[in-house]
Every structure is written in C-alpha cells, then in structure tokens.
Design brief:
Layout (H helix, E strand, L loop, with lengths): L11 H72 L7 H7 L1 H5 L4 E6 L4 E4 L15 H9 L8 E2 L6 E10 L5 E10 L19 E6 L4 E3 L18 H7 L4 E6 L5 E8 L5 E8 H4 L1 H32 L1 H15 L17 H35 L4 E6 L4 E4 L1 H5 L13 H4 L2 H15 L4 E9 L2 E14 L2 E11 L1 H23 L2 E7 L4 E4 L1 H6 L10 H5 L1 H15 L4 E6 L10 E10 L5 E10 L1 H22 L3 E7 L4 E4 L2 H6 L3 H4 L4 H5 L1 H15 L4 E9 L2 E13 L5 E10 L1 H14 L10 H18 L4 E7 L2 H8 L1 H18 L5 E6 L2 E6 L5 H15 L3 E3 L2 E3 L3 E7 L6 H17 L5 E3 L14 E2 L5
Parallel strand pairs: 31-32
Antiparallel strand pairs: 1-2, 1-5, 3-4, 4-5, 6-7, 6-10, 8-9, 9-10, 11-12, 11-15, 13-14, 14-15, 16-17, 16-20, 18-19, 19-20, 21-22, 21-25, 23-24, 24-25, 26-28, 26-31, 27-28, 29-30, 32-33
Helix pairs in contact: 1-7, 8-9, 24-25, 25-26
Length: 927
C-alpha cells in the first residue's frame, strides 16, 4: 500500500501557496473546459458543413458530366436516325468518322442490333458479329423502356475491366428499335471524372463513389472496384448510412482504422452516392490547435497566480523564516549568539515570544556543554587524531567513549555516547566477526583478529585489538582499537592477481608475447611462444640464440631501434628452414621504460596476418580485373564522392576525350569538365545527390567524332539508404538515334503509295487549321475514295487492288499544287488539304482536275480497267475545328456516292446542316 502524502513535510509557505494555486487551477480548468466545448462544437459543425457543400458541388458536376454524355449519345443517335440506314453497312464507317469526338467522352462505343449482336465497334471491327449482349441488364432495360439507361457496374467480357454502360436506342421509320448505341466508360481510367478525380480533402483524404447496392464505382484503390464495401468483412457504418439513403456529413472509421469525417451526396442521373473521406486528425487540426493554446493559457494563468501567491506569503512569513534559520544554525554552533535585536519590531507578537524562549533554552544547553567539554577535550584531542578506531565498552556492551573515527562508522555523534551498544556502533557484518572475541575479552583474555567490511561498496579489511579493563571486582569493561589494513591487503592481492591476469591474458592472446631485458634475455614468454619452442625453457635464454644468427640478423635493426626508446612495427614471412610455415607475421616491439626514462628492455607481440595479406592480394587482383573490364566498356564511367571529387573513372576518357584517368583522380568534377559545362550540369547533380536518378542526352564532339551521349546520374546509397556518392554513366547512342529518326520518317509515310499517311496528315491539318484561324483565310478539305474498289479487290485480288491504289496515289499527287497536301487516309480513302484558297471557284477547279485525272483507264499488268473517284468537299468556316470540317467533308462524300459516284459534292455550311438544304452538285463530264 502506498503511503499517504504527509503535508507536514512541506513548509507553511509552500502549503499556503499550493492551496491558492489549486483553487485557481480548478477555476481555470472549469471555465476553459466549458468555453472549449462550445467553440469545438461550433467549429466542427462548420467544417462538416463546408465538406458537405464541397461534395454537393462535385456531385452536381458529376451529374453534368453524365448529362453531357447522355446528350452526346442522344445527338449521335438522332444523327444516325436522320441518315436512315437500311442495313448495318456504313455503321462501322460512321463510328470511325466520329471516333475522335466520341473518344473524348467514352472508352468504347458499339452499335448493337435488336438481337444483341454487335454490328459496329469504335475500337475495331474484330468483335463485330462475335459478341452478343442480349443477356446484359442494360440492353434488356433499354429494349423494354425504349429509352437510354445507365447500367450498373460490370466487368467487360473482353478486357476484364470494370465498366459502366450508357445506352441510346435508334429507331427505324416505323418507330421500332433498330439498334442500341452502347457507350462504355472504364472506371479505372482517370478521365472517368476528369479534373474532379484530383480533388483532395486535406493531405490524405480522398473521394469515392458507391451505388445504392453497396458496389464500389470509383475509389483511389483500383483493386476495390466492383467489390462490395463490406467485402473484406469490415463494416464502415458511415458508408452503410449513405447507401441506405443518408445525405450529409458524419463521422466514421474506415477499414484501416482511421477516424474520419465523411460527407455523402446522391447523384441525380444515377443511383450512385458520391462520398468524401477527410481524416479527422487533418479536418479538426485547427480546432485541436486552438484547444492546445487555450490549455497553455490556462496553465500560464495558474503559474502566474501561484507565483504571486508565493511572493505574498513569503513576504508575510519572512521574519518567521529568519528565526527558523537562526535556530537551525545555532544548534550546530559551539557558541550561541542571541537574536532579540533582530526582532525589535516583533516584541509583542508570536515571533518575539518564540525568539526569547529559544534564547533561554540555548543558554542553559551551552552551560552544560562547557562543563563536559572541558573534561573530555584533552582525551578527545588525542584519540581523534589517531589513525584508528578507539572506544570503551562496559560489561553490558554500552559505549562509554568513542573517538571521531569510531562515531563515524555508523554516523553517530557524541549525543549517542552511553546510549548505543557495541552492536549498534558497528556495521552488522563487522559485529558478527567480533562476537567470539568479545566473549573472550569479557572473560579477561586479550584478543586480536582480522576481518572484512563494506568500504563504500567495495571490500575493506581491518585489524581489531580488544583489551580487558580488569579491576578488583573483576572485568569492568574492555578497550577496543581497530586499524584499517585495506591498502596492505589490496596491495598483496593485486600483486598476486596482476601476475595471474597478465599470464592469463597473454596466454589467450592470438599472438606470440614476450619480454626481453636490456641484455637481450627473455624474462617472460606466453603459452603460444612456449608451444612454438616445445621442450626449450626460453626464460633466461638469449634472443640471438633462440632465433638463430640468420633470423636475428633480419630483426636486429628493429631491436636496436626499440632499445633506443622507439616503438617499431614490421612484417615478415615465416622461416620454413626453422620449421615455421610460410605465413606472414606482423611484430610490434615496445620499449620498457623505467621511472627515470631508461630502457630496461622491450615487449614483443607477433600476430599471424596471413589472411589479411591474402585479402589484400585478392583485392588488388579484383581491382585489376575491374579496371580491365570498365576500361573496355563502350561508355564513360565515373564515380563521385559527396564533395563531387572524382574517385574513379575508366579508360574511355583517354580514347574519347584524350584525358588520362590518373590526371582526373581526387579532383573536383568542375576542374575536369570546365566551369561552363559544370554550371549547366549543377542542378542535375543536385537532384541526383538528393536521391533522384537523372538521365539526359547531349551531343558532344569527341576524338572519335561528333556523337550523341545518353548520360545517367545514379545515386550511390549505403545500407541505411543515405546517398554517399554518385555513379555517372555516359553511353554512345548515336546509331540508335539515327535508327529512331529513320523509323519516325517511315511511320509518317504510306508504304504502298508513298504519300503521307493518316498520322502525318492529321498533324499537318492541325497546324494548317491554326494558321487559318490566325490569318482568317479558310482551308479546304477534299475527302475521296475509289468507286467500286471493293469489287476490284474481291474479283481481281489484293495485288490488283494494290496496283490501283499505287496508280491512284501517283495521279493524285500530280493533280495538286506543291503547297497542298495529298495523303492516303485509310484503305481506299484519300484526302487533300488546300491552304490559302481564293474562293469556291478555285476549290471546284481542283476537284474537277482530280476527277479528270482519274478517268483515263488504269493499265495494270495483263489487263486494263477504269477506277473513278467520288469527292466530298468542305471549306472551313470561322471558329470551326478540324473534326467538324472532316465530318462535313465525309457527309458530302457520302452524298456524292449516293448521287451516282464519279463526281464531287460541296458540303453545306455549319448553319445549314440541320435545315435539310439540298446539296449543290458539280456534274461530271462524260466518262
């Protein structure tokens, strides 16, 4: 049981101060707690409302995204219905034509007929006729309702990705569903939410989406997509409430045990719930900071009140404190000095009464002490200066006298004389050793004994003499005199232990240890040296005789140096002729100096260092192999320390730059590469020394010619992950760069016709549209395909089709200006882009020229055939993008082919595309 705190141990001044401080502390804590409660409640409510408002705005934005996608599908569906397709032909081309605008909103788009078969697909035609989705819930709901729906999340059968589908029915002329346009959104793609996906709540908060069935739609952890929120068995009651219909802010604990502030808002266009997770430690950090400041202020107020109280009480009790100090000091002084004059102002109060009473008592005590001290002073002066314990005990073992040393054994004072016994005056362990001797001396027999005692935690030794006080009536008591003999005993023990310790240490050292005097005779050898010379007593033998004349001659210079007072170390191989193996040994000779500085001999220690020598040789061989390897690597290799000094570089510096590796070692990299080059690389070096792998390319003029180098800075780290240096590797990538340029050129040219391909054309078209917007001069797009090309391919084979394509491309290139661009777009589709056109007449002239160039017969190997072309022509309008221009040209091409082919049609303007205006046409000349 813990003892109860005794307040009497503290001063009156401290108790009074503590009481006042406790009252102030309790009052301050109460007021602060109440204030903090209301402040925290209001601030936490405001933070929760702010988070709910943010998530509500984001939910509205998501609603708008779905609404815009549905509007896009509706518009696209209406466009398909207006073109009145009688079959599935042309749907795939239509999807490909609008792919660029649809790709920004959806990951894929497909046309599905009423039986669930895919008849057109944006991401390739390979799935057409191979996939049936009639069992999909979203397809069935669309057929049943006759309207577009947003599906529940599902896993794509082809890619295995988590997706949702948006549908839009396409009606035929009778109002029946002919096709279902199905657009897919992949949930794991970040463009699903666009910029909203990067919205953060604090540093580690995040946003997620679940549906009302508890299935995860979007989450930073993509592995949880399409899983139920409770799939791992851990429930989050906050998300459970949201799934059940709750909207607003609440608190909860996620599956990792993080306490967080949650906010939920339902999305109008779907059955989805948008949620935000904001860690409570981050959300309420300002509130907690205010709370810490409030409690710090309360503590400061308490300390100030306690300090003021303490100073007030101290001022009031100062006279009493001075009297107390005077009483404590007076008890230890031999002469007492009264103190009444210091309390002249307190003659009639409690302090004055206490002072006078203490003066009276101290005078009586001093008179008594003077009488006793006069009789004992002489004896005590003698015994107190003896280096021994002196005491006298009566027959009852009560101490009647003890000198200073005797009283100090147990911390006794003169006041204990006559009251303490022999047992009370000695340590228990010492008393038990003296009990037999006390019995003897009380019988009148003097005795002497030696024993041990505790000397400040260490073992001490004493010698005790007991002499009886024999009187006429017998033994009246006995005298005790005790001497401390610890130094003598310890010296004896240490001398013996030292010899044993030295022998044990040297015998167990993995070395040959010896001592040789100034006359070169052994005075000490350890066990290893004795074993080496088995059967020979080495102590007393001469060093030259033991080692032999030849071996001693090898060590004689070191012996002379050590006898001159110098410590020496040397290495030497063993002597096989004397039975000593070929191992390597290292010897240390240390002079043995006397107190007057003369050399009395020397100590010798010899260690077997064969393993170290072998390791050094292996290291040197390894370094030689490494140098040979790195010098032949076709790259510049360098190592820098933390101070950017070169600690290694390979031989390529000599062959590529004419710099000898030895001239670069231990020099700052600035000195080796030059000031200007170093300043360019300084920021990259700083990033690499910060732990980042940095790579860049540069063109350098070397001794072997101008080359392209790829340089990489690799941080060198230790076991703790700290950067301790830097590796620099510069590879010659000149040939690789040249091959990349060749491949890039091939990637922009159609291999069959030699015309620019689709990629090259689209890049050129974007630049041309930009120039058109800046200058205000329109551009013109001609979209061509070869009439009846599919029949040529099917009847005559692909080789004939390829020959037609090549000849068509040749004639097309000759029909346009050098400033215009003609390209093969895809299959039998070709495009021409005209810049700086003067008007519609110039455009029509170019189209007519192309038609005329294609009408002459195509002479192929073994046969002659005709291959005309149809052209759709569109002239760009103000603020029109390329996608819109392309769609208008494509639509005009479709109209030209519908009108009978071998002609061109001009596209209507953007403002007329929905008005049903008839197509103006240019009739071809007779074919």
């Amino acid at each position: 049981m813990r003892p109860v705190l005794d307040l009497r141990r503290f001063s009156l001044r401290a108790r009074l101060s503590a009481g006042v401080v406790a009252i102030v502390l309790l009052t301050t804590v109460g007021i602060t707690s109440a204030a903090l409660y209301f402040v925290k409640r209001d601030m936490q409510t405001a933070i929760a409302d702010e988070q709910f408002e943010r998530i509500s705005n984001i939910a509205d934005a998501v609603d708008q995204k779905f609404l815009s996608r549905r509007t896009l599908l509706k518009t696209f569906g209406d466009s398909v219905e207006s073109q009145n397709f009688t079959g599935t032909e042309g749907l795939q081309d239509l999807v490909v034509q609008h792919q660029s605008s649809l790709k920004e909103a959806f990951d894929n788009l497909a046309f599905v007929d009423a039986g669930g078969e895919i008849v057109a697909n944006m991401n390739g035609a390979q799935q057409i006729g191979k996939i049936n989705v009639k069992d999909r819930d979203y397809f069935q709901r669309t057929i049943a309702a006759g309207a577009g729906v947003v599906s529940q999340p599902f896993k794509n059968r082809i890619s295995g990705l988590a997706q949702v589908a948006m549908t839009e029915p396409v009606l035929d002329r009778q109002g029946r569903i002919a096709y279902v346009i199905t657009a897919f959104i992949t949930l794991s793609e970040r463009n699903f939410l666009g910029e909203l996906a990067r919205v953060k709540f604090g540093k580690s908060g995040y946003m997620f989406i679940v549906n009302t069935g508890g299935i995860i739609i979007d989450h930073p952890d993509k592995s949880r997509l399409l899983q139920h929120i409770d799939a791992d068995g851990i429930r989050n009651f906050a998300t459970d409430r949201a799934v059940a219909g709750f909207e607003g802010a609440t608190e909860g604990v996620n599956r990792r045990g993080v306490h967080a502030l949650y906010a939920f808002k339902h999305i109008g266009q779907t059955n989805w719930v948008l949620g935000a997770m904001y860690p409570r430690s981050e959300a309420f950090a300002p509130v907690e900071q205010i709370e810490r400041f409030a409690w710090a202020g309360a503590l400061l107020l308490t300390l100030l009140a306690g300090g003021l109280t303490f100073m007030t009480v101290r001022a009031q009790l100062a006279p009493l404190s001075r009297l107390r100090e005077h009483m404590q000091v007076s008890r230890t002084l031999p002469d007492y000095t009264p103190m009444q004059e210091k309390f002249s102002g307190h003659a009639g109060d409690e302090v004055g009464d206490l002072s006078r009473a203490f003066d009276s008592l101290m005078r009586e005590r001093q008179a008594s002490q003077d009488r006793v001290q006069s009789s004992e002073r002489f004896l005590r002066d003698v015994t107190d200066n003896l280096p021994a314990v002196v005491a006298y005990f009566d027959r009852d073992n009560r101490c009647l006298f003890a000198n200073k040393a005797g009283l100090g054994m147990r911390g006794r004072t003169q006041a204990d004389i006559g009251r303490m016994t022999m047992q009370e005056s000695l340590p228990d362990a010492v008393y038990r050793q003296l009990v037999p001797k006390i019995a003897l001396v009380l019988q009148g027999t003097p005795s002497r004994t030696e024993g041990t005692y505790d000397r400040n935690g260490k073992e001490g030794f004493f010698e005790c003499h007991l002499a009886p006080d024999i009187r006429a009536d017998g033994v009246a008591g006995y005298y005790v005199m005790t001497f401390d003999i610890t130094r003598q005993k310890v010296a004896e023990r240490e001398r013996a232990a030292g010899e044993t310790r030295v022998r044990t240490i040297t015998d167990n050292l993995p070395a040959l240890v010896s001592h040789v005097d100034a006359s070169l005779r052994f005075t000490f050898v350890n066990a290893h040296l004795r074993a080496l010379f088995e059967g020979i007593e080495l102590v007393g033998q001469s060093l030259p005789d033991v080692r032999g004349a030849e071996d001693f001659e090898a060590v004689a210079p070191y012996v002379r140096r050590v006898l001159a007072g110098e410590a020496v170390t040397f290495e030497k191989m063993g002597d096989p002729a004397r039975g000593i193996d070929k191992n390597w040994y290292q010897s240390h000779y240390i002079p043995d100096l006397g107190s007057d500085g003369t050399v009395r001999g020397f100590y010798g220690m010899t260690f077997d260092i064969t393993e170290r020598k072998q390791a050094e040789m292996r290291s040197a061989e390894s370094e030689r192999r490494l140098r040979g390897l790195t010098d032949n690597v076709p790259a510049l290799m360098t190592e820098l320390d933390l101070e950017e000094r070169v600690v290694f570089c390979n031989g390529r510096y000599q062959t590529w730059l004419g710099m000898a590796p030895a001239s670069m070692m231990n020099r700052h990299i600035r000195e080796t590469i030059g000031e200007a080059h170093y300043e360019m690389r300084k920021p990259l070096l700083a990033r690499a020394f910060a732990g980042e792998v940095v790579s860049f390319e540069q063109t350098a003029r070397l001794l072997i010619g101008e080359r392209t180098l790829q340089t990489t800075y690799l941080p060198q780290t230790n076991a703790q992950g700290e950067v301790v240096g830097l590796y620099i590797l510069a590879n010659d990538v000149t040939e690789l760069k040249q091959k990349q340029k060749q491949l890039d050129a091939l990637a922009r040219e159609d291999a069959l016709t030699g015309l620019p391909n689709r990629r090259s054309f689209e890049e050129h078209a974007r630049d041309a549209m930009a120039r058109s917007r800046r200058s205000g001069v329109p551009v013109c797009l001609l979209f061509l395909d070869i009439d009846y090309f599919k029949s040529i391919n099917d009847s005559l084979g692909h080789s004939a089709g390829d020959a037609v394509l090549k000849e068509f491309g040749r004639r097309l290139k000759e029909s346009v200006r050098k400033t215009d661009m003609a390209a093969r777009y895809a299959g039998d589709e070709f495009v021409i882009l005209l810049e700086g056109v003067a008007g519609m007449a110039e455009v029509q002239g170019v189209a007519a020229k192309v038609l005329a160039a294609m009408r002459p017969a195509f002479h192929l190997s073994g046969r002659t055939l005709r291959a005309t072309t149809s052209i759709g022509v569109a002239l760009s309008e103000e603020d029109e993008d390329f996608s819109s221009l392309f769609i208008r040209a494509d639509t005009a091409l479709y109209a030209a082919k519908k009108e009978g082919k071998n002609r061109f049609m001009m596209a209507v303007s953007k403002s007329e595309t929905t008005g049903g205006t008839s197509w103006p046409r240019q009739e071809p000349s007779s074919a």
